[in-house]
Design the sequence.
């Protein structure tokens, strides 16, 4: 995030800009996201359009759109609030790259944890819908909520949250750090924590519906480390990086669209408010 993203705009403007950025970004990268999820769940065939139709590339788009809106709003709000809160303790010298890097890392980590926790049930639903073939496990977004709660309880909405938080916290810390200081190298954030993303996706489809998705042979995992050991034993190190290329491929447009839409929306909201104040 650039300096003006840390300091300008009201909380409401930040929430609106973040939600808009998430909404637009998700729609743009939805097809790549579906392909990535299928690869992470051990897909050996990517003939999604042939077998399921063109619209299959947007499977899970409703929960994903809501998730991205919630996540982005929480993320940008938490980032700015954390940066403002810790700056007095680390020093308010904005020309010091070391201090700015520390602020970016800490605020980015908090932002990642906040956004992930608030949007996680929607993330789980997004994964399960994307993993469905023509035989639908869930008939609708709202019925999915009811069936998961009925069959798995509240904890069912948080399957895989441990590797997700381990991924999201440091991952977003690296993301914002590299965005501030080393923008061309932001891909290292995705690559570093990618194995945890594999574990997250596979744990999200555990439970009573595990054998009903398009990939019937998803192993049963009970813990993060257990999942990593099983994947290494059965698939080798490459198993922990299934879908990495697609992830890196979608990272540039996703991040670029998110930040561009956020900056543009925030800038226009501030202009509208300033114009309204002048007319009073």
Sequence:
């Amino acid at each position: 995030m650039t300096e003006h993203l840390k300091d300008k705009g009201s909380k409401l403007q930040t929430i609106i800009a973040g939600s808009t950025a998430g909404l637009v970004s998700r729609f743009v990268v939805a097809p790549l996201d579906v392909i990535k999820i299928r690869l992470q769940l051990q897909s050996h065939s990517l003939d999604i359009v042939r077998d399921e139709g063109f619209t299959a590339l947007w499977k899970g788009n409703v929960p994903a759109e809501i998730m991205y809106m919630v996540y982005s709003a929480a993320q940008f709000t938490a980032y700015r609030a954390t940066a403002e809160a810790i700056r007095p303790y680390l020093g308010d010298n904005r020309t010091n790259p070391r201090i700015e890097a520390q602020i970016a890392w800490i605020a980015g980590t908090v932002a990642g944890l906040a956004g992930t926790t608030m949007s996680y049930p929607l993330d789980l639903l997004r994964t399960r819908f994307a993993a469905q073939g023509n035989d639908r496990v869930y008939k609708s977004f709202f019925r999915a909520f009811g069936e998961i709660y009925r069959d798995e309880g509240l904890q069912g909405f948080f399957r895989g949250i441990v590797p997700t938080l381990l991924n999201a916290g440091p991952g977003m810390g690296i993301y914002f750090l590299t965005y501030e200081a080393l923008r061309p190298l932001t891909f290292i954030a995705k690559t570093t924590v990618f194995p945890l993303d594999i574990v997250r996706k596979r744990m999200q489809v555990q439970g009573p519906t595990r054998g009903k998705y398009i990939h019937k042979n998803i192993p049963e995992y009970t813990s993060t480390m257990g999942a990593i050991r099983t994947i290494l034993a059965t698939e080798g190190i490459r198993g922990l990086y299934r879908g990495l290329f697609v992830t890196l491929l979608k990272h540039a447009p996703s991040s670029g669209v998110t930040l561009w839409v956020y900056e543009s929306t925030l800038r226009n909201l501030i202009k509208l408010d300033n114009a309204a104040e002048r007319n009073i």
Notes: The domain at 3-273 is CATH 1.50.40.10 (Mitochondrial carrier fold).
